[in-house]
Structures are given as structure tokens and as C-alpha cells.
Specification:
The chain is an all-alpha fold. It has helices at 2-39, 41-56, 60-90, 95-120, 123-150. The protein has a domain at 39-137.
């Protein structure tokens, strides 16, 4: 009887250890996907266009325009990140100003993308897209907060209620 209970305890512990390994693999895959997307944004833009075509019932012309808009956005973000990395290497003491500047530029890219989407989609499609987009942004923001907390960083948004 003791052997069976000991065997069961060992079995449960090994399942717990395996679950932790799988969870960590998923995190690494997310970072690999992001790095791959930054190298070649074309497949990501195509996947995004396919997803929007399915969810918003787009015609072929709309799908192609969305793919181009997404590709333009991804390339602008890639360029922004490259510039940001260069600036950080040049002047590390001006990092706060650089981050604020980068945030403004990201918001500009995002606003331009929203304007393009508004021109491409019908009113009802745009309304539906906006809801989906906001939900995705909140989920992404939540993932980023959790990632920061896991690394031991303090989350600024917990201290104040500033909206960006």
C-alpha cells in the first residue's frame, strides 16, 4: 500500500514538473515569433489579413488593402525599433526622453493605421474591428505587465491612474 501511494505521489510531482517545462516553452515561442515577425513582416501581415477577412467578412480588395496597411505598420515599427536601438547605444543618459519620443511615434503609427482601416472598412466592419482591436491591445498590455512583474520590475500603472 505504501509503495502504491509513494508511486502516486511521484507521478503527480512529475506531471507538475512537466507542466512547468511546457509553460516555459510557450513563452520562448512567443519571443521567437516576435523576432521572426520583425525580420520578415510579410507572413505576419498575411496572417492578419486572413484573420480579419474571416472575422469581418472582407472582400478580396479589402483583404489586400488591409495586408498592405498592416505591412506598412509593421515596417514602420521595425524602423522605429532600429532607430531606438541606435539612439539608446549612443546616449544612454537620455533614455527617458527617448522612451517618451518613441511612445509618441508608436501612437502616430497606430493612429495612421486606424485611419487607414477606417478608409478600407465599412462603418459596421470598422466598429467591429475597433472592438476586437481594443480587446487585443488590452490583452497585450496585460501580457506585458505580467512579463514585467515576472522579471521583478515594478509596474508603473499600479501606482497611478494615468491613461496614455
Amino acid at each position: 500500500m505504501k509503495n502504491i501511494s509513494l508511486l502516486l505521489v511521484m507521478l503527480f510531482l512529475s506531471f507538475g514538473a512537466l507542466a512547468q517545462v511546457d509553460k516555459n516553452k510557450g513563452k520562448a515561442k512567443g519571443h521567437e515569433k516576435q523576432a521572426m515577425m520583425m525580420e520578415d513582416p510579410e507572413p505576419h501581415a498575411m496572417m492578419y489579413a486572413d484573420k480579419m477577412a474571416t472575422r469581418l467578412s472582407l472582400n478580396a480588395e479589402q483583404k489586400e488593402k488591409i495586408k498592405k496597411a498592416q505591412l506598412k505598420r509593421l515596417e514602420a515599427q521595425k524602423e522605429l525599433m532600429a532607430d531606438h536601438m541606435d539612439d539608446m547605444a549612443d546616449e544612454p543618459e537620455d533614455m527617458a526622453d527617448e522612451r517618451a519620443n518613441m511612445h509618441k511615434q508608436r501612437m502616430k503609427i497606430q493612429d495612421d493605421f486606424k485611419e487607414e482601416m477606417k478608409e478600407i472598412l465599412t462603418e459596421s466592419q470598422y466598429t467591429k474591428w475597433e472592438v476586437m482591436h481594443e480587446r487585443e491591445m488590452k490583452m497585450h498590455k496585460g501580457e506585458m505587465k505580467m512579463e514585467g512583474k515576472k522579471k521583478g520590475k515594478k509596474d508603473k500603472s499600479d501606482d497611478d491612474d494615468t491613461e496614455y
